[in-house]
Amino acid sequence: MGEEEKMKETFFITHGCPKLTIEEVHPLHSFFKSWKENVYSKKPKAILVISSHWITDQPAVNSVHLNDTIYDYEGVTYPASLYQVKYPAPGAPNLAKKVEKLLNESGFESVYIDKKRVLSHATWVPLMLMYPEADISVCELSVQPHLDGMHHYNLGLALAPLKDDGVLIIGSGSGATHPSWDTTHDGDGVAPWAAEFDSWLDSALTNGRYEEVNECETKAPNWKLAHPMPDHFYPLHVAIGAAGEDCKAELVHSSWYSGVLTNGILSSGTLKHGSYKFTSS
């Protein structure tokens, strides 16, 4: 493959909620909508998304010819239109086989190819705005939150050769924080614990302290508050691993959630919308 077709970059994005696809005032709406113009102008041959909304015991990758849309809203009620929206991107069975092969060769003995699984909202929500034409093949990879950050970093290391095939690797979760929905914050502005976690993460990433990030369970301040369930954080580690230990991190979006979620129980100043680009050296 020609040098111009290779990918040097991987990304970790905050996918946001499904409503952002129809709410233009949402800060993530404009971020994703301007993706090709302001963030990443290359057109990938295929996209591999590590989805925070696909949890399995062992790595799993979907393999279909045409993707459909999962309305995995976890009990939250959205406008009727969000139960009809479709993102019919082509599937990528050959990419799924390559993912399985690379992971097997790197010591991940059990990799499941799911021939029925389609796209979670961690994938289709951002891609609807980033690549609205739905003309790029998309494959989804699961996370294993019962394991740790290093496990997911090693997944990324194994998948790094995909970049040479023109595959864009995107970890889709929530950066920096994804607290429980009943987490409260009575003061104005950002909750101090959330600001401390966000500051730690940004400093660690932009200064290349990836070993510290890989040990987030013990190194990160307020870890249990920021990510009581780490499914929304571990896609970050896959993106870092796929970019390589000498990669450079750049913050490409930063905003704090404000207002009230549809179910009305998450306080402002606790959920951070952070997204990063990692460029291989």
Q: Which regions have little confidence, pLDDT < 50, spanning 5+ residues? A: none
- Sheet of most strands: 6 strands, mixed
Write out the strand line-up for the largest beta sheet, numbering strands in chain order. 5-2-6-1-8-7
Counted by DSSP, the helix tally is 10
Provide the gyration radius in Å: 17 Å
In short:
The protein has helices at residues 27-33, 35-39, 93-105, 121-130, 149-159, 192-206, 210-214, 216-219, 223-226, 234-243; strands spanning 9-14, 46-55, 60-62, 112-114, 137-143, 167-173, 248-256, 272-279. It is of the alpha/beta class. Strands 5-2-6-1-8-7 form a 6-stranded mixed beta sheet, with helices on both faces. Strands 3-4 form a two-stranded parallel ribbon.
Outline the fold blueprint:
Layout (H helix, E strand, L loop, with lengths): L8 E6 L12 H7 L1 H5 L6 E10 L4 E3 L30 H13 L6 E3 L6 H10 L6 E7 L5 H11 L7 E7 L18 H15 L3 H5 L1 H4 L3 H4 L7 H10 L4 E9 L15 E8 L2
